[in-house]
Amino acid sequence: MTAQTEAAQAPDLLYSEAEEDLRSAVRSLLAGRADAPAVIAGIESDTPYDLRLWESLAAGIGAAGLLVPEKLGGQGATHREAAVVLEELGRSVAPAPYLTSAVVATEILLALGAGDGPVAGLLAELAAGRKVAVLALPFSTPPADGAAAMTGTLERTVTGVAEAEAADVLLVPTADGLYAVETGGNGVAVQALVPLDLTRPLATVTLSGAAGTLLADAGPAAAAVSKGLLAGAGLLASEQLGLAEWCLTETVRHARERHQFNRPVGSFQSLKHRMAQLWLEVVSARAAARNAADALATGSPDAPLAVAVAQAYCSSVAVNAAEECVQLHGGIGMTWEHPAHLYLKRAKADSIAYGTAGRHRETVAGLVELPAP
Question: CA of 369: how far to CAs of 193, 285, 308, 366, in Å?
Fold first, then answer.
């Protein structure tokens, strides 16, 4: 292999100018609409989702249509740009159905090869932010189980569906194929659960006599569902990265400002070591998350491996960063008013979303060919 070929295949882990501009726009929006007091107030209310925030994010900035081609009403961007949005959503733990709708559901519909018909129509609605769609599978479903989900009938009960309460459309995999079911139709019941992470509600979905539109037969649908779950797992790593970065930044800021024995607590050597170790983990998590996003964006054959590596590593980094944030904030880190608990709960919930770290390590082991002894 020549040096030129190696360079062509090397993943691009850096952020482009356009991606940084997108980050700036999303961060500015979230700072005004989804700061810590607003998020806490939202989860204490009956409507955790700020519909105006979602409208501004999805339609105003155009984030909902990043993965959708321009001819179908989207922005024609890639998973790299969607990853930047998720980094910022992780940084603010904003309650927004972006991962489930603008990434997973959208990726599934795109994988069906929409030219016209109901798939193209639904994609246009999602890209414009006029509708939200979620996959009617448990949030813990790993990418490897996408094909196995194509069983049963439209009459079913599914527990642990993320953001089903915010959805207008459910994508329901069955043995016959993939159906689109309107949540407001007859025979559809969405019962809210009490999740650990209140910023990403879960629900039990019961379909009984519900009418659905067949989007694809079982074979193409199984491949599409697996692809959607793979994209969800890969870009979830970017959300975990944003979460971990906030925890590190906030912990360092607090350690500089908090004084004990007439000196900043961050000057104590033991705390320096812990924050330095956390910084190393976050930097490594950034590399893994960016590699997964780039592999998905370029359609690399190594995308399943890149996603599995990112999830196997980033989930534990996010949990550790959130735990350190709580502990190194001392007493105030344990209070409801301080947002540290939001990040810990999101990190814990994300650690089992789209497959646990253990499942992804098994995937890595199955994909990597070890040299013969």
Answer: 42, 23, 15, 8
